[in-house]
Amino acid sequence: MVLIQGPLMLKAMLSAHFARDNMIFAIKMFIASMLALYISLAMSLERPAWAMATVYIVANPLSGAVASKGIFRILGTVAGGAMAIAIVTTLVNSPELMSLAMACWVGFCLFVSLQDRTPRSYFFMLSGYTAAIIAFPVVDNPQQVFITAVARMEEIILGIVCVTLVSHLIFPRHIGPVLAGRIDGALATLSKAARDILAPHKGDISVVEDVKRLAASISELHGLAIHLNYEPSSLRGMTRPLQALQHQMVLLLPVLLEINDRINQLRSLELKAPQPLRELLDDILQWLESSHRRDLTRSAEFIRRISAVEQECVRETPWLTAMELSALTALRTFIERYAQCCQMWMDIRSGNIDMDRYPLGDSKGRFDLHRDRGAAMRSGVAALISVGLACAFWYVSAWNMGSTFAMMAAVGSSILASMDNPVPAMLSFVRYTVASLFFVFIYVCGVFPAIDGFPLLVLALAPVYLWFGSMLFNPANTLTALPILVNTAMLLNITNNETLDMAALANSAAAMVLGFLLPALVISFISAMTAEHSAWRLLRHSWRDLAEAARGEHLYSAEHFTRTMLDRIGLLSARLASAPRLTASAQTIWGESALGTRLTILQRLHPELPPMMQGQLQRLQGNIHDYYAAKGEGRKADPRLLDGSLAEHLVEQLLQLPATSSRRQAMLMLVGVKRCLALIQQAELNSQAAPTVV
C-alpha cells in the first residue's frame, strides 16, 4: 500500500510560484484544455477526457516544443493504432498470443525509443503504449478496435491542435531567442576561457570546470534545435545549420584544454617566448576581447603569423621544440574553428547559410550520441514482463478493470524509462495519482451535482487546474503536477451523459495505481540502476572504445570519437554528484577523450612512418590497449603500461627526419599522447582503488 506523505506533498503543492510567467502558462494551458473539452462535448466524442489530458501531456512553455511534441504524439498514436488493429484482428481468438505480441511490441518500441536520444524518441515510445491503450479495452469486443483507434486519434489530435493554437497565439514564447542567448553565451565563454589561458602572468589557470559547464550547455543545443521547424521564430528552418554549429563548438572544448596544458607546461619551465610570439599573443587577446562579431578576417592573419613563428621554433631540446609546436598548432586550430563558429552564427542569424561549407555529423549525416544498448534492452524486457504479468493477472482474475491495469502497466513501464532508476519517480507518480482522488471525490460528490452548463464547469475546474498548471511551468514539479492534472481529468471522465458510479471510479483508480506499482516492482529487479552504476557503465564504454582506438578497431573518424566521448562526459557529469566515489576515476575522462582522438589519427598515419618506428608505435599502442581493455572488463590495470617515454622517443626521432606533412602530424599527435598519458598516469597513481561495481 502506498502511503500519502502528507507534509511532503503539501510542501510540494505550496511550492508553486505564482509569478507572471507561471500564471500566463497556467492560463494558456487551461484555455486550451477547456477548448478541447468543449469541442469534444459539442461533437459528442466518446472520451473528451483524452483531449483534455493531452493538452497537459504535451504542455511546454516554449511554443515550438509544444508543436513538435504534438506532431510526434500524433504520429505515434497513428502507428500505435495501426499496430493495435493488426494485433487484435489477427490474434483475438488467442488471448495468450495477443498479450505476448502486445507486450513484445511495447518492449520493442521502448528499446528503440531509448536508443534515439532526441525528441523523436517520443514517437517510438508512444507507438508502443498507445497500441496497448487501444487494444486491451476492446478484447471482449474486437470489432470495435478500429472505432476505438479512430476515437483515440480524434481526441489526441483535437487536444494537440488546441494546445498548439493557444501556445502560438497567446503570448507565445519561441525557442529561437532561447537558443540565440545560449549560443551567444557559449561563444562568449569560449572567448573568455581562451583569454584566461593566453593572458600573461595569470599563473596556472584551470579551465576544466568552465569547459565542463560549457560542455553541458552546448550539448543541449542539439535537441533544442529540433523544435525550430515548428515555430515562426527568426531561426525557423535552421535546425541543421544550428546542429552543425553545435558540432563545431563541441570540437573546440578539447582544443582549449590542449592549449591550457601545453602553455602551463612551457610556463612551468620558465621559457621565454620570442618577441614575435609575444606580440602575436597580445593581438589575439585583444581580438578575443571584442564581441563575437569581431573582424573575422583577422583570423587568417593570425594563422599566417603562427606559421611564421613555427618556422623559427627551435628550443633547447627536441621535446621542448615539439611541445611549443604542439601549443602553436592547437592555438591555430582554435582560431580557425572559433572564427568558423562565429561566421556560421552570423550566417545563420542573417538566414544566408551554405551548408556545403559546414560539415554535419559524419558522411551520412549521423550524430555522435552515446547509446547504451544493454540498458535499453533491460528496460524493454522490463516493459515486456510488466505487461505480460498484468495480462496474466487479468485473465486469471477476470477483473473487469483488468484492461485498464494492463494498459497502465504499458504506460508506467515506458514514460520514465529514460531515468537510471525510475522507481522513486514512479512511486511519486502513484502518490500524486492517489492525491488526485481527493479532488475527484470533491468534484463528483460536492461540486458537479450543483452546477449546470459548461461555464459553471469551467469555473469549477479553474482553481485546481490553474494552481497545478502554474506548478507545471517548472520542470522540477512535473512529477507533482502532471499526475494530478492528467488523472483528475481521466477519472472525472466528463461526458454529455454524466453518471455517478463511485464503485467504478474506485475500481478504475485502483487499476491505475496498480498499473504503475507493478512495473515499478519489475523495473526495480531488472533495469533500475544507481547513478554510480550508470556512471561506471559510461566509463567502461569509454574505456572499451579507447582500447579499440589503440588497436585500430575503431571504425569511425577522430571527430566521431571526440564527439561521442564529449557526449558521454556530459552524461557522466550529471551523475557524479550522486556518485562521489567515482570522482577520482572520472577525473581522467577528458584526457582519455583526447588520447583516443590522437590514437585514431595515428592509426591513419601509421603507414607513413618508417618501418622501425611503426614497430615502436605498435608497442606503444599495444600497451595502451592492454591497459584500457583491462579497465573495460573490470580488471585491475597496471598504470606502468601508460609510460609515455616511448612516445617522447618517437617524437625525437620524427624531428630528426626530413619534414613531411604526415610526419609533422604524427609528431604532434605523439606529443598529445605523451601529455595525456602523463596526466592519466599521475591521476591513476594518486587515486584510491576504484570501487567494484557488480
UniProtKB/TrEMBL annotation:
Source taxon at top rank: Bacteria
Name by which UniProt lists this protein: FUSC family protein
Lineage of source species: Bacteria, Pseudomonadati, Pseudomonadota
Record's subcellular location: Cell membrane
Key words of the record: Cell membrane, Membrane, Transmembrane, Transmembrane helix, Transport
A Pfam family: FUSC
Main location (coarse class): membrane
Alphabetical list of PANTHER family matching this protein: MULTIDRUG RESISTANCE PROTEIN MDTO, P-HYDROXYBENZOIC ACID EFFLUX PUMP SUBUNIT-RELATED
Entry GO CC: plasma membrane
Record organism: Proteobacteria bacterium 228
Transmembrane segments: 21-43, 74-91, 97-114, 121-139, 145-171, 375-395, 429-450, 508-531
Membrane topology: Multi-pass membrane protein
GO molecular function, one term: transmembrane transporter activity
